[in-house]
């Protein structure tokens, strides 16, 4: 239970608000297939290893690149793999770009809870809302619009924001707190990976709440989380009475 109401609730996006496997697991498998077709060489096992997922079981490492790396970083990893099969790095980059089709939020963002009611309630209780994600800004905002909650989100910190380091650095939390004039000590961080919890710890938030709706089981999160719950749908159970 929170000892007092937070002024700011910071959510991770993928695996916390929306189904990670639906959005990114399917994308990774399809990207590896398109890339293999483009270079006429099967690089699916290499992409799976590089991105830290098991194409057979569907298991995605919650601390691996597919879980926490930026899109730019994953592109660079793919270019390094393809380079062995191309005449030049420029050619490898061009092939990766051709195969690189980011997920469409309007078709592939599956909410993990009744987010509209949750966000409305958080705002009604006097707290602001922010998103801190490893995804880029444009698709993140598009996802929030698709989910019908963009009007309730007060700030974003995204992978392509200039000068903002990736998780678990505290930069994303500092950025949204600075934008809203709220200190990390009056904020809570909610996410599905150890990097989310570590980011919250490094920023000094008042609570770090892990959810097992995404890539991690409780054991993955326990070392850095203040507490763990099945879903963001359970958040209000921990909210102190008015």
Structure explained in plain terms:
This protein is an alpha/beta fold and 242 residues long. Helix content is 43%, strand content 10%. It contains 11 helices and 6 strands. It has helices spanning 20-39, 44-51, 65-68, 71-83, 89-99, 105-108, 115-124, 137-147, 171-180, 194-203, 218-221, and strands spanning 8-11, 128-132, 155-157, 187-191, 207-211, 227-229. A 6-stranded parallel beta sheet has the order 3-2-1-4-5-6, with helices on both faces. Helix 1 runs antiparallel to helix 2 (44-51), helix 1 crosses helix 5 (89-99) and helix 2 runs antiparallel to helix 4 (71-83).
Break the fold down into its secondary structure elements and pairings.
Blueprint: E1 8-11, H1 20-39, H2 44-51, H3 65-68, H4 71-83, H5 89-99, H6 105-108, H7 115-124, E2 128-132, H8 137-147, E3 155-157, H9 171-180, E4 187-191, H10 194-203, E5 207-211, H11 218-221, E6 227-229
Parallel strand pairs: 1-2, 1-4, 2-3, 4-5, 5-6
Helix pairs in contact: 1-2, 1-5, 2-4, 4-5
Largest sheet: 6 strands, parallel
Q: Tell me the strand percentage band.
A: 5-15%
Low-confidence stretches: none
Radius of gyration over C-alpha positions, nearest whole angstrom = 18 Å
Number of helices: 11
Percent helix among the residues? 40-55%
Task: Give a count of the beta strands, DSSP E runs of length 2 or more.
Answer: 6
Mean pLDDT: 95
- General shape: elongated
Reading the helices and strands in chain order gives EHHHHHHHEHEHEHEHE
Sequence of strands across the biggest β-sheet: 3-2-1-4-5-6
Distance between the termini: 13 Å
Give the class from helix and strand content and strand pairing: alpha/beta
């Amino acid at each position: 239970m929170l000892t007092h109401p937070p002024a700011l609730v910071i959510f991770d996006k993928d695996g916390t608000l929306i189904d990670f496997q639906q959005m990114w697991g399917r994308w990774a498998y399809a990207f590896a297939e398109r890339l293999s077709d483009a270079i006429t060489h099967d690089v699916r096992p290499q992409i799976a290893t590089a991105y830290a997922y098991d194409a057979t079981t569907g298991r995605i490492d919650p601390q691996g690149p597919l879980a926490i790396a930026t899109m730019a970083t994953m592109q660079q990893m793919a270019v390094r793999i393809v380079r062995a099969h191309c005449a030049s790095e420029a050619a490898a980059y061009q092939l990766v770009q051709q195969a690189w089709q980011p997920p469409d939020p309007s078709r592939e963002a599956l909410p993990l809870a009744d987010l509209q009611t949750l966000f409305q309630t958080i705002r009604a209780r006097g707290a602001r809302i922010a998103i801190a994600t490893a995804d880029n800004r444009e698709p993140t905002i598009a996802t929030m619009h698709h989910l019908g909650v963009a009007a309730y989100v007060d700030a974003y910190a995204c992978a392509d924001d200039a000068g903002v380091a990736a998780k678990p650095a505290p930069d994303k939390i500092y950025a949204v707190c600075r934008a809203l004039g709220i200190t990390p000590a009056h904020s809570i961080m909610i996410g599905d990976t150890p990097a989310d919890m570590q980011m919250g710890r490094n920023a000094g938030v008042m609570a770090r709440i892990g959810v097992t709706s995404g890539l991690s089981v409780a054991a993955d999160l326990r070392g850095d989380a203040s507490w763990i719950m099945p879903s963001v749908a359970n958040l209000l159970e921990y909210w102190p009475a008015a």
